[in-house]
């Protein structure tokens, strides 16, 4: 499912216009990105949490130049689904 399909489905289920739903979805993604980029966490009970994780620096190789390089530590976005979400997916896989 892509963003447009999600917006259309929510609009159909809620009876709201697609422009209103699109605005809400856009603001949701903006707010999650802003909070996670500030090392915050967004928790949605029954669904999951969005946060940032830090990857440690590692040593890699540039095989074309045959040199060792250091890949610096960096932050990456992380989503942790709650158990109810995980279990509903498991049920679909087992029954589907």
How is this fold's topology laid out?
Layout: H1 3-14, H2 18-37, E1 42-44, E2 48-55, E3 58-62, E4 67-71, E5 74-81, H3 83-95
Antiparallel strand pairs: 1-2, 2-5, 3-4
Helix pairs in contact: 1-2
What does this structure look like?
There is one protein chain. This protein has helices at residues 3-14, 18-37, 83-95, and strands at residues 42-44, 48-55, 58-62, 67-71, 74-81. It is an alpha+beta fold. The protein starts with a helix and ends with a helix. The protein folds into 2 domains: 1-38; 39-96, IHF-like DNA-binding proteins (HU Protein, Chain A, Irregular), CATH 4.10.520.10.
Quick check: average pLDDT? 93
Number of helices: 3
Helix-strand string: HHEEEEEH
Largest sheet, spatial ordering of strands: 1-2-5
Helix-strand category: alpha+beta
Give the fraction of residues assigned to helices: 40-55%
Q: Which CATH architecture of the largest domain would you pick? A: Irregular
How far from one another are the termini? 18 Å
Radius of gyration (CA) equals 19 Å
- Our estimate of the beta-strand percent is 25-35%
Q: Please tell me what the overall shape is.
A: elongated
CATH C-level name of the largest domain: Few Secondary Structures
Number of strands: 5
Main sheet overview: 3 strands, antiparallel
How many domains is the backbone divided into? Answer: 2
- Given as residue ranges, the uncertain stretches (5+ residues, pLDDT < 50) are none
């Amino acid at each position: 499912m892509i963003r447009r399909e999600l917006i259309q489905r929510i609009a159909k289920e809620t009876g709201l216009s697609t422009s209103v739903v699109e605005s809400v979805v856009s603001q949701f993604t903006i707010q999650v990105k802003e909070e996670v980029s500030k090392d915050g966490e967004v928790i949605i009970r029954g669904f999951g949490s969005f946060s940032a994780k830090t990857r440690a620096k590692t040593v890699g190789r540039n095989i074309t130049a045959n040199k060792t390089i250091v890949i610096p530590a960096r932050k990456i976005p992380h989503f942790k689904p709650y158990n109810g979400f995980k279990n509903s997916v498991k049920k679909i896989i087992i029954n589907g």
